[in-house]
Amino acid sequence: MRIISYNVNGIRAAISKGFITWLQQANPDVICLQEIKATPEQIPLIDFELSGYPYHYWYPAQKKGYSGVAILSKIKPNNVVFGTGIAHMDFEGRNLRVDFDDVSVMSLYLPSGTNSDRLGYKFQYMDEFQDYITALKEEVPNLIICGDYNICHEAIDIHDPIRNKTVSGFLPEERSWLDGFMKKGFIDTFRFFNKEPNHYSWWSYRANARQNNKGWRIDYCLADEKLKDRLKRAVILPEAKHSDHCPVLVEIN
Q: Is 219 assigned a catalytic role?
């Protein structure tokens, strides 16, 4: 199974930049999208179906043009779960899960902490999300949580760890939470295969950051540790340029 996660920063804008042609070429079995910023009525769904994705699920935020996640699949899932049942998370359309025979895939868009109000909300979300996943793992084995976590895990995951140590996304408390989350049973699939620096999944639009590869690795495919022996490959796909993020991919047997 070939799984991609991609924060498209507006699905309609991404489509205008050639996203659908790219999707046909990348040809994942499942793709998790974040920050779709649209409702299904605003999206040319037939184009995805004609591209080989008859099973597509959209979970927009209630606020127009904001947040939202989606999953497109070539394979019919056995079960689809919209949200977490936690109202403040679901209001912003941040979690969507599909269950297949022996693996479940979640699209996650964890909040950013761009100001003090949102930083507080981000920490609340992280705490409640941890509790939700801890309980979920008891009933849903072989979970893969793909998405934009808005956190760099370690210094290797950011171009300038010294200057960014007081910036949300690389705060010690955020990094500690992500480290603890992984240690409770998840594998960072990209780092499982690649220990090299200078691999990022998001770049600011300012100061030619992407051209100079001054980025952050904040998009992950975290796999249940029970899938360790089934992991085949995990890569970042920076050549895809429909967003300020790029896709991340994992393949499992």
A: no
Q: What is the pLDDT of residues 94-145, one digit of tens each?
A: 999 999 999 999 999 999 998 878 999 999 999 999 999 999 999 998 999 9
CA distances to 39, 57, 85, 145, 169 from 104, in Å: 24, 14, 18, 8, 27
The structure's pTM equals 0.98
**DSSP string of the chain, one letter each residue:** -EEEEEE-SSHHHHHHTTHHHHHHHH--SEEEEE---S-GGGS-HHHHHHTT--EEEEE--SSTTS--EEEEESSPPSEEEES-S-HHHHHTT-EEEEE-SS-EEEEEEPPP--SHHHHHHHHHHHHHHHHHHHHHHHHS-SEEEEEE-S---SGGGBS-TTTTTTSTTS-HHHHHHHHHHHHTTEEEHHHHH---S---SEE-SSTTTTTTT-EE--EEEEEEGGGGGGEEEEEE-TT--SSSB--EEEEE-
Find the catalytic residue in 29, 148, 188, 219: 148
Q: What is the mean pLDDT of residues 149-170?
A: 98
CB atoms within 10 A of CB 231: 17
> Is residue 224 a contact partner of residue 182, using CB atoms and an 8 Å limit?
no
